[in-house]
Every structure is written in structure tokens, then in C-alpha cells.
Amino acid sequence: MPNSAGPGGQGIRANGQTAQNLDGSNSSERIEIRGISALLPSSFSPTNSENGDCALAGSLPEGSPMRRSEKEMKDRAWMESILRKALVCRIALCADHEPYLVPMNFGYRDGCLYLHSAPAGRKIDLLRKNNRVCFEVETDCELSPSSKACKWGVKYRSVIGFGRASLVEGPKEKAAALGILVEHYAPGKFQFPPRTVAKIVVIKVEIESMTGKKSGYPD
What domains sit in the chain, N to C, each tagged with a CATH number? Predict the structure, then answer.
């Protein structure tokens, strides 16, 4: 099983799996920011005055358009193809006024990301305080050299999205989620020893919004 490189309502059921709310709250707030191209104003504060969590909602225009609109990819099938092809998913977390980014192995199915982790550590601590996450994946990265310094470029296909994380509960549910993750790298059916499943945490991120972007490619 690949290792890490690096919600709400309690007991809700989604896609046949039971997920436990990380912080026990019953919030229905959403962040949905599809593109930010301008510098933040000097008066901007990332802190939610009510609970101290990092929260961008209300601080920036919702649904801000991507500045380079010709590079934006809105087709969901295209974005899902990138999610299925990418090898690493970078998960951005924020709590206690501190951002934290971690690259992880992952799997994708039915609008959700699946990741696994040790039961204790910084990302689990942060997720219990604030289960909002941002994620990024990319594929086909390639330098485009030039004889002129300012004409260099990079070809890529990428997806950035937002969602809420929860923990997958129950041995059968956890094993099914791990199967999605492992299949991302090695197609086939695998068996997971119960003792191993019991020792790890499986994180499920339900995607609320995402945007695709490409540069240097015709599609």
C-alpha cells in the first residue's frame, strides 16, 4: 500500500460509506473560490473572528474569475481525468492562523478524494480543528525553454479544488476506501489485513468545487 509522501453531521452516510465529522460540529458553511489572481488587500485577515479558523469566505469575491480565462478548463470530465492521472495530491490545511501543505498519495472516486495517514500527527490535529481543505494536482509538467529569459514557460494540466474532510469509520468501509487509493496506482483487487486497517486513519475529502487549468496544450 503506498505511503503518504509527506462533513457536516455526525455519522453521515455518503456513497455507501459512513464518515465521522472531524470536529463534531454540524456546520453547513461552504468555501467556493474558483480562481484568485489579484493580490490580497493590506486589510485582509485570514482569521474568522468567531472561531479563529482560517476562512476566506466573505473576504474575497465569491467565484472570482480566472485572470487567464483561455487557460481555464470547466469540463468536469476533463478535471476528473487529471485527478485519475496525477500521482500526488497536495492538501492544504489551516488552523491556529498557520497554513500547512502536505503532498500525499490518494485515490479518487465519485467526487471524493481518499487519503490515508497515521492516527496521530500534525495534519490530523489540524483537520480536527478545521476540516476545510484545498487540494491541488497536476500532470504533464514540462519546461518550454527559450533563448530569451522572459519567454520561458511551463506546460501543464492541473486541478485546484476545495472540500471538507472527514474520517472513514468501520473496518469494511476503511478497507473499501483503501482499495480505491491503491487501485489509483496498481489496478486490481487487494486484501488488507484487519490489524493493518485498524492502525491507520482513512481521510475522505468530499469535493465542493474545483477548477481545471492548462497551459501549453491544445485541449
Answer: 16-23+67-215 (2.30.110.10)
